[in-house]
Amino acid sequence: MPFDIMSITLQNIMLSNNKTKGETMDSSKNNAKSKMFQDALVNEKDFLKEIIQDYCQSLLEEQMRQHIGAEKYQRTIERSGHRNGYKPRTLKTRVGTLNLLVPQDREGNFSTSLFSRYQRSEKALVIALMEMYIKGISTRKVSAITERLCGTSYSSSTISSLTSKLDGQIKAWKTRPLKKKYPYLLADTTYIKSRVEDSVLSQGVVIIAGIDEDGYREILSVEVINTETFESYDRIFKSLRQRGLSGLKLVVSDDNKGLVKAVNKNFMGIFWQRCTFHFIRNVLDIVPRAKRKYLAEDLKTVFSCSTKKDALKIAAGISDRYSKYERMEDMLAVDILDALTFMDFPVEHKRRIRTTNLLERLNGEIKRRTKVVRIFPNNRSAGRLISAIAIEQNEEWLSGRKYLDMDCLKDYRLPGSDTADKVLVALK
Q1: Where are the domains of the chain?
Q2: How far apart are CA 238 and CA 232, in angstroms?
Q3: Contact of 52 with 67, CB cutoff 8 Å
Q4: Are 103 and 89 spatial neighbours (Cβ–Cβ below 8 Å)?
Q5: Distance of alpha carbon 375 from alpha carbon 82, whole angstroms
Q6: Fewer CB within 10 A of the terminal residue: the chain, N end or C end?
Q7: 3-class DSSP state for residue 375?
């Protein structure tokens, strides 16, 4: 399982300090332990650092044990290698620099993802902060953060050295060939603040995720764009096709006009699902705030129906009850058809392909991490950090559980599916 050092919570650390094998502590001892921990956390500067350092060292030892199949000095027939001392390594974190000893094996086959995977996004964050400092737009707080994270050197050569390897890794990931088939594609946009020439502007971060033929989620594209125009989305979708995107049956997104136009051009004949969450929100905006709670409950019944016929019948009744709002009739009679596309797909998939909620957790993580920077010095810096976050999320998805069981889609006949397949092949 991928390991992220910063996901260790204080609660987990307290539990690990309060419990031992085969031992149950009474409440008074537990409270005393908690108080000792809290006092140490407040008064001892390196207390948390030492705990995390011990945790990381234990993790490295466990990884080596699994690699060779034996404990230290243990002789077993399952052993597949031999230890060969340690190599000192440092790991810069938000609690300080950790001094670790990485176990080595005689064959030289042992490796750990602790350093490379963790530092990829951390380096991107550090670089963004350092660039702010060099450009003279940082505050004393930003300066203190960068000094704590990576020392006191903020020269251009330092930044160049840090970025060269990271940028190469990110570029390779963003241009990788798409060798699998992706029946479902989801597109969503979140927003960050970035400096463009002498102004601070809102910039869009377009994230494209796919669900592959085996049912796993995968992030296929991350791009920072100036404006949400057809040209921007057209370039992104064209790049996906050039990288080998195939097997597509459905695209899920909001109803941004430029995005929808680009979908129709690049994936002609493919089904488009208007995100039901965004659709409901658009409908609720039509009525006064006092009526939204009841209207929202009515709309939920529409998308809970088993057939389009039943859904449209209920939608028509809602439209009649709110006939005084002119836009309501068009939305619940015409626009709603795009929000009901998911009903043409297997019932097992409906709940997860009717919205772009799959991307909400990633968007939340991007917001959390970019909040530290607040205003990026440029779009390249923003793209570097956000791409690094996306790579880590992608690794977690691909090594985790399946998101959908795709067996039910293999023999499922969609309306006009033969035509859609032919069109996608022709576009290539």
Answers
A1: 5-100, 184-379+402-427
A2: 10
A3: no
A4: no
A5: 50
A6: N
A7: strand
pLDDT tens per residue across all 428 residues of the chain: 333 434 433 444 444 444 444 444 555 655 665 566 556 555 555 666 777 788 788 888 888 888 888 887 777 777 788 888 888 887 766 667 788 888 888 877 787 766 665 556 666 666 665 555 444 444 444 555 555 555 544 445 555 555 666 788 889 999 999 999 999 999 999 999 998 888 999 999 999 999 999 999 999 999 999 988 999 999 999 999 999 999 999 999 999 999 999 999 999 989 999 999 999 999 999 999 999 999 999 999 999 999 999 999 999 999 999 989 988 988 999 999 999 999 999 999 999 999 999 998 888 888 887 777 788 888 888 888 888 889 888 988 998 899 999 999 988 888 765 544 444 444 45
Report d(CA 253, CA 187) in Å as an integer. 5
Residues making up the chain, counted from first to last: 428
Quick one: tokens of 18? Answer: 């309060």
Asked if 314 contacts 305 with a C-beta cutoff of 8 angstroms, the reply is yes
